[in-house]
């Protein structure tokens, strides 16, 4: 369906349509009075007569001739006519300028010059629009599309066509003109006016002297015509002569200048102003030149419509005609002309309705229409119409008018004369479309039309009374005016109400008849209309005062309702008349005379000023015979003194007041009776009158012959009802009280129904009169109603109380009335118990199992059907069915293989959530969906998180996801990650782990955490002050591998993991440092060598021994060495220190890269990452230290043993003989610790701890071996200070470079102690760097001090201590001297100092 255009007509809402019954249709005035409250809100209404009411058409078609009016459609609409008038002015302006106006086209549309001119004027004029460049804005306001440079075109057209006209309108082109004196010398006898008749171009006139003249011959040239603007006669080619007054102007001196000389007649600015300022003729319809018969007009009308729409007339839709009509009236470029036979007097040509004694012969069946009230010839003059008191026949008001229409012929916006009613009947033909506005919106409609077309009202102030102007209803509705419409078809009436503006048009050829009428309610509006006409200076159709006086003269015969209205109107009329007469007397009028104005024609007694028809009085003057004015315009009569004026009176005030009193008496008689009736009918409660008062009022109305109006009819109806009710009530009260006989149904043989009793009591109390029987019946009814209300309340309860039902059954025996609630109460008693059980089960959904519901349903089947029971049964059955269905479905969904998606299960779980029952499978389904959503949320967070996921969380998620019976999309990807991680672990294990190794991959890759970290029962509490507890949480102590694995798993990123492993590395280095010192001190000479326990077998050293290069412990070669292992090129590590295969570094880097590609973190991966970084850092540190100590480049050396064939005497020599003669020796070379720098030792230890194979470690090992041998040789040949000085030099170099700042002070102390010891015992073979000790420099007085050389200052609530069993009895930290808890508990500990002291003394 196509969308309507924005400017397409939109039909207003429909007005009310009434279809009266035959009874209502019988009296037209009663029916109109009945519908008036509804219809007057819309201004117009349509009435469809009852079926069968079809009056014959009585007009003689052949003899009816008329001359129609010519209507040009685009001149009817107010705004369109304003545009056309403007275009006429423009055309006339340019025509007088000698140019023909041609309206330009812009964007293929005719340019609306009126709108363009108005928009430019609203923006401040042409100059301001050009200055502010507003032409694009104006183009948009005119509806042109933006961006097409239309503004420049509009400017050009405005400047060419409208700008000169606006200059003319403003008077800017009217300049002061002058005539220059022209001296012309003429010859005697030669007339000066003997010059050529020049019209357009004026030249010069040369006066030649005769040859015989006595004067000196000369020739001079004089300008005969000069420009009135510049005073020059030059440029004669551009000089114009006005065709009206013969004034001359240069084309370039005009405002604005003319570019070319006009081709036609040209008028100067003065003549132009005179022509254009002539007053316009009032607009009106022209009469056609042809006289039509009804048949000829119909042929013309049908041919026009058929040709216009190109289809048969009966097939054209009314909606199409309506839209086309309003399009045409608003189109300037389309000029459609139609003809309308309007206001044809029925008195001259005959009415369409049959009339008595008319020329039309009425059949006996149609004689009823002769006197029918809806016959428009009768309606206006019926008694209820006040127009019956107008003496003259008023054509169009009291006599019907005929209307013959054709397609598009229209009647413009107007209200009826004197704001009266009108009624229009369409005898036959095509429909007539009506538009109407309610009377209360009349002034609003007038204001809107004045606002939108002010130019029309300036020339015609009473334009709306001329019936020549129409305006689009959509325009009026847009400005807030309520408009309604209807299509009047043949055989239908349209009624318009007082002051209701209406208009419309004809859909085609039709014949209609209309007349006016006025009812009693119109009287105040009629008086108001006369005052309105006086203000507009519009003539009256009849004299309202004369009509009122005519009715007052017949006061005794007037209808009392009409008399009341006439009295009210006369009161206001006489007050105004008395006021104006007294005003005239005060002005000086003294002359009065009687005037019979009712004998004069209306046009002979009109006020000369306001055109009001005078009746009660008028003012005349002897100087102006036949001229009179009303009392409101005394000063407008003439210039004579007011004392010369004569006051002409139809009635004196003494005559008028008795007339008013007579009407008043007639009205008061009725008013008194009506007031009493109203008071009686509207009385409430105790103020109600008895039945006798009503009977007396009815009798009074019959005796006074009051009108049979609504009040009297209501009084009669109330009296009749009261008499009937009184009789029935008396019979009920007079009858004997019936004893209640009980039958099987519990009903007595004679009982009233409660409804009958209630209806009767209600009727008694609704009566306007008071009956004495009502209270007694009311008391009985109240008790019964209370019982019924209580019963209904109990019966309406879902679970009524058994006690309540039983009490109601007991009360019911007191009423001898048929009570339908009794059997229901008995049945309800049984149902209540069942409902209580069902309700109790519903309040506890957690206990409502399937078995409970089945049991309740079985019990409810045996009850009597009841809505509440059936509803509860239905709910239970439905709940049971739904529950069983969802239980089975939930079970099948959870058992489905492959599992369903979470969407499917979630939708099912959501549906089951509203089931108020305990369903195990459904609960399991909800729990499964919840777990699946939580799992998916975790998976999404795992995927979207910035950190790489840990293996533990990934494994946990996979296990939990596999346990959830839902198809989880990310699970497959996570499982594949798990497989890749497992494969990586296997690959890493294959690379690093030895065959049948007891170590795990993480244990191999991580720094060691269990070296010398076991507590001892031989400990001492830490002295001194407790450090204040800090709110900062201390990191967990990494004592076991599980602690390390847990700590790595809990780290959020690799950085945290690296920090944890770095801490572990420091502890590892410290632990090995202590372990090496302890093992070295254990192998020092003691009293009994057999007390030592070494090797894995924990036996005394004996025979061939091997010393681990890392832990420095001794092992029996037969226990730990493989006979086939003869490689002496690498440092030998014991089984505890040799933890892995130590693959090359590139293999470890490759494994790390593959793990990063997988994208999963695991403790082994972090450990491997740290191992690679630790290895790289060690390589860099080894390179730096080798440079500091002037070591050879650490590079891979050939796998050949060193050249030394035996151990130097400065190295550890285990070839010793004790008192037990135990002898042991070593099979491989070890780096001697005596004289070895702490940095080099630490570098070598960390290199051996690395779980990758580095050539630099082997090279460092051989370099240190070779360096130890050379130092031993040098020490034998030179003082030891040489080495010490060299070492100090290296220390200073390290100090300058800022490396190992923590150990520099300790190394210096150590060097001095070693120097001292060497001086003291130069041949000592058991000296160890870690055997010296010193007091801690930063010890506190209140704290115990560990005398170990390298005290670790351990912290914590408890610190393990061990006491020397030698001669010093000092306490040492176990961790500082490398003693484990087991060693401290089982063996005696002797510190290094006591060992050295005791050994020296033994020697």
UniProtKB/TrEMBL annotation:
CDD domains annotated for this entry? PHD1_KDM5A_like (cd15515), PHD3_KDM5B (cd15687)
Its GO CC terms?
Answer: chromatin; nucleoplasm
- Give residue spans, biased composition: Low complexity: 1324-1334
Keyword check for Aminoacyl-tRNA synthetase: no
Q: Which InterPro entries match?
A: ARID_dom, ARID_dom_sf, JmjC_dom, JmjN, KDM5_C-hel, KDM5B_PHD3, Lys_sp_deMease-like_dom, Zinc_finger_PHD-type_CS
Give the Basic residues compositional bias ranges. 1306-1322
Residues in JmjN domain copies: 15-56
Q: Where located?
A: Nucleus
Cofactors that this protein relies on:
Fe(2+)
The GO terms this record gives for MF are: DNA binding; histone H3K4me/H3K4me2/H3K4me3 demethylase activity; zinc ion binding
Q: Which residues form the ARID domain?
A: 80-170
- Taken from the record, one Pfam family name reads PLU-1
Would the keyword NAD be found if you checked this record's keyword annotation? no
Q: Where is this region: Disordered?
A: 1014-1038, 1297-1339
A Gene Ontology biological process in which this protein takes part is:
regulation of DNA-templated transcription
Instruction: List each copy of the JmjC domain by range.
Output: 368-534
Q: Which domain of life is it from?
A: Eukaryota
What EC number(s) would the UniProt record show? 1.14.11.67
Q: Which reaction does it catalyse?
A: N(6),N(6),N(6)-trimethyl-L-lysyl(4)-[histone H3] + 3 2-oxoglutarate + 3 O2 = L-lysyl(4)-[histone H3] + 3 formaldehyde + 3 succinate + 3 CO2
Q: Which PROSITE patterns match?
A: ARID, JMJC, JMJN, ZF_PHD_1, ZF_PHD_2
Membrane-spanning regions, if any?
A: none
What positions does the domain PHD-type occupy? Answer: 224-274, 1092-1140, 1343-1397
**Name the UniProt record assigns to this protein:** [histone H3]-trimethyl-L-lysine(4) demethylase
Q: Which organism is it from?
A: Cyclopterus lumpus
Organism phylogeny: Eukaryota, Metazoa, Chordata, Craniata, Vertebrata
Per the record, the gene is kdm5bb
């Amino acid at each position: 369906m196509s969308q309507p255009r924005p400017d397409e007509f939109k039909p207003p809402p429909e007005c009310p349509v009434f279809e009266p019954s035959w009874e209502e249709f019988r009296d037209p005035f009663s029916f109109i009075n009945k519908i008036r409250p509804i219809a007057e809100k819309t201004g117009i209404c349509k009435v469809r007569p009852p079926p069968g009411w079809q009056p014959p058409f009585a007009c003689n078609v052949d003899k009816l001739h008329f001359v129609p009016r010519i209507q040009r459609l685009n001149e009817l609409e107010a705004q369109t006519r304003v545009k056309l008038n403007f275009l006429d002015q423009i055309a006339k302006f340019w025509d007088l300028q000698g140019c023909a106006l041609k309206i330009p086209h812009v964007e293929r549309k005719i340019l609306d010059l009126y709108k363009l001119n108005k928009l430019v004027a609203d923006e401040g004029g042409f100059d301001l629009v050009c200055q502010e460049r507003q032409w694009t804005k104006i183009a948009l306001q005119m509806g042109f599309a933006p961006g097409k440079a239309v503004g420049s075109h509009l400017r050009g057209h405005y400047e060419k066509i409208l700008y000169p006209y606006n200059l003319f309108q403003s008077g800017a082109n009217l300049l002061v003109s002058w005539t220059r004196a022209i001296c012309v010398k003429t010859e005697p006898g030669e007339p000066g006016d003997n010059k050529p008749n020049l019209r357009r171009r004026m030249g010069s006139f040369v006066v030649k002297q005769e040859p015989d003249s006595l004067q000196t011959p000369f020739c001079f040239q004089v300008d005969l015509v000069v420009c009135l603007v510049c005073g020059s006669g030059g440029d004669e080619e551009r000089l114009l002569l006005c065709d009206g007054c013969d004034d001359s102007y240069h084309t370039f001196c005009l405002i604005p200048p003319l570019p070319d000389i006009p081709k036609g007649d040209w008028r100067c600015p003065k003549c132009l102003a005179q022509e254009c300022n002539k007053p316009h003729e009032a607009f009106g319809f022209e009469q056609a030149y042809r006289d039509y018969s009804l048949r000829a007009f119909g042929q013309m009308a049908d041919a026009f419509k058929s040709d216009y729409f190109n289809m048969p007339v009966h097939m054209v839709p009314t909606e199409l005609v309506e839209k086309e009509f309003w399009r045409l009236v608003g189109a300037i470029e389309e000029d459609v002309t139609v003809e309308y036979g309007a206001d044809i007097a029925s008195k001259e040509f005959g009415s369409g309705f049959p009339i008595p004694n008319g020329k039309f012969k009425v059949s006996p069946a149609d004689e009823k229409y002769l006197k029918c009230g809806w016959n428009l010839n009768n309606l206006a003059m019926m008694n209820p119409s006040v127009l019956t008191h107008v003496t003259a026949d008023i054509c169009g008001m009291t006599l019907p008018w005929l209307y013959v229409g054709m397609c598009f012929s229209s009647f413009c916006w107007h209200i009826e004369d004197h704001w009266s009613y009108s009624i229009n009947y369409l005898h036959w033909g095509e429909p007539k479309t009506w538009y109407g506005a309610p009377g209360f919106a009349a002034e609003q409609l007038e204001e809107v039309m004045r606002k939108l077309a002010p130019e029309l009202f300036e020339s015609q102030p009473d334009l709306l009374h001329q019936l020549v102007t129409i305006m689009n209803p959509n325009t009026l509705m847009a400005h807030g005016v309520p408009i309604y419409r209807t299509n009047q078809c043949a055989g239908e009436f349209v009624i318009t109400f007082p002051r209701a503006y209406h208009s419309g048009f004809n859909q085609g050829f039709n014949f209609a008849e209309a007349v006016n009428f006025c009812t009693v309610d119109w009287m105040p509006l009629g008086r108001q209309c006369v005052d309105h006409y006086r203000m507009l200076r519009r003539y009256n159709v009849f004299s309202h005062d004369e009509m009122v006086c005519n009715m007052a003269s017949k006061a005794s015969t007037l209808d009392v309702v009409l008399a009341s209205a006439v009295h009210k109107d006369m009161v206001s009329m006489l007050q105004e008349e008395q006021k104006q007469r007294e005003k005239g007397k005060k002005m000086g009028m003294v002359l009065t005379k009687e005037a019979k104005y009712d004998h004069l024609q209306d046009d002979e007694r009109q006020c000369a000023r306001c055109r009001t028809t005078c009746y009660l009085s008028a003012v005349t003057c002897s100087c102006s015979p036949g001229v009179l004015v009303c009392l409101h315009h005394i000063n407008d009569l003439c210039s004579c003194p007011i004392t010369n004026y004569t006051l002409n009176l139809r009635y004196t005030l003494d005559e008028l007041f008795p007339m008013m009193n007579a009407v008043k008496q007639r009205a008061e008689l009725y008013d008194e009776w009506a007031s009493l009736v109203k008071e009686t009918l509207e009385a409430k409660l105790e103020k109600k009158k008895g039945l006798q008062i009503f009977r007396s009022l009815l009798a009074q109305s019959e005796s006074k012959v009051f009108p049979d109006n609504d009040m009297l009819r209501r009084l009669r109806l109330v009296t009749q009802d009261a008499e009937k009710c009184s009789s029935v009530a008396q019979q009920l009260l007079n009858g004997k009280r019936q004893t209640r006989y009980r039958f099987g149904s519990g009903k007595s043989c004679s009982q009233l129904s409660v409804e009958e009793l209630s209806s009767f009591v209600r009727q008694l109390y609704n009566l306007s009169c008071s009956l004495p029987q009502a209270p007694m019946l009311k008391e009985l009814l109240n008790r019964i109603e209370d019982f019924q209300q209580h019963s209904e309340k109990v019966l309406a309860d879902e679970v009524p109380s058994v006690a309540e039902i039983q009490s109601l059954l007991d009360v019911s025996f007191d009423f001898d009335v048929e009570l339908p609630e009794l059997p229901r109460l008995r049945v309800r008693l049984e149902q209540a118990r069942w409902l209580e059980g069902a309700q109790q089960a519903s309040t506890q959904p957690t206990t409502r199992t399937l078995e409970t519901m089945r049991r309740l349903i079985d019990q409810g089947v045996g009850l009597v059907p009841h809505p509440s029971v059936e509803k509860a049964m239905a709910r239970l059955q439905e709940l049971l069915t739904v529950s069983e269905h969802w239980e089975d479905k939930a079970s099948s969904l959870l058992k489905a293989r492959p599992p369903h998606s979470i969407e499917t299960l979630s939708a099912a779980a959501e549906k089951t959530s509203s089931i108020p029952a305990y369903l195990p499978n459904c609960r399991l389904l909800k729990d499964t969906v919840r777990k699946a959503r939580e799992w998916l949320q975790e998976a999404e967070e795992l995927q979207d998180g910035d950190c790489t996921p840990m293996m533990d969380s990934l494994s946990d998620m996979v296990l939990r996801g596999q346990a959830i019976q839902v198809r989880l999309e990310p699970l497959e990807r996570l499982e594949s990650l798990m497989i890749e991680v497992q494969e990586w672990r296997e690959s890493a294990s294959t690379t690093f782990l030895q065959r049948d190794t007891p170590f795990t991959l993480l244990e191999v890759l991580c720094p060691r955490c269990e070296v010398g970290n076991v507590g001892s029962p031989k400990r001492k509490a830490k002295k001194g002050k407790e450090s204040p507890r800090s709110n900062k949480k201390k990191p967990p102590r990494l004592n076991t591998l599980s602690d390390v694995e847990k700590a790595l798993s809990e780290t959020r990123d690799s950085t945290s993991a690296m920090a944890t492993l770095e801490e572990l590395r420091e502890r590892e280095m410290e632990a090995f440092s202590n372990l090496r010192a302890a093992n070295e001190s254990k192998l020092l000479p003691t009293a009994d060598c057999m007390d030592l326990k070494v090797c894995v077998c924990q036996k005394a050293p004996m025979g061939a021994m091997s010393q681990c290069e890392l832990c420095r412990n001794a092992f029996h070669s037969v226990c730990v060495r493989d006979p086939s292992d003869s490689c002496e090129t690498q440092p030998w590590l014991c089984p505890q220190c040799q933890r892995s295969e130590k693959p090359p570094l590139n293999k470890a880097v490759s494994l790390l890269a593959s793990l990063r590609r997988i994208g999963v973190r695991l403790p082994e991966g972090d450990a491997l990452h740290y191992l690679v970084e630790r290895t790289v850092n060690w390589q860099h540190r080894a390179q730096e230290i080798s440079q500091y100590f002037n070591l050879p480049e650490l590079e891979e050396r050939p796998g050949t043993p060193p050249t030394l064939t035996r151990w130097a005497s400065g190295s550890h020599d285990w070839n010793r003989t004790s008192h037990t003669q135990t002898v042991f020796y070593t099979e491989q070379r070890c780096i001697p610790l005596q004289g070895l720098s702490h940095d080099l030792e630490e570098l070598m230890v960390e290199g051996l701890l690395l779980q990758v194979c580095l050539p630099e470690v082997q090279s460092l090992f051989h370099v240190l071996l070779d360096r130890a041998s050379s130092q031993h040789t040098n020490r034998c040949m030179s003082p030891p200070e040489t080495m010490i000085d060299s070492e100090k030099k290296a220390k200073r170099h390290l100090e300058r470079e800022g490396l190992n700042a923590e150990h520099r002070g300790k190394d210096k102390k150590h060097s001095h102690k070693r120097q001292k010891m060497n001086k003291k015992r130069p041949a000592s073979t058991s000296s160890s760097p870690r055997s010296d000790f010193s007091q801690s420099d930063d010890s506190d007085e209140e704290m115990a001090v560990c005398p170990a050389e390298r005290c670790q200052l351990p912290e914590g609530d408890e610190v393990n201590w061990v006491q020397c069993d030698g001669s010093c009895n000092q306490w040492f930290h176990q961790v500082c001297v490398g003693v484990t808890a087991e060693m401290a508990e089982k063996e005696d500990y002797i510190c290094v100092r006591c060992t050295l002291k005791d050994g020296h003394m033994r020697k």
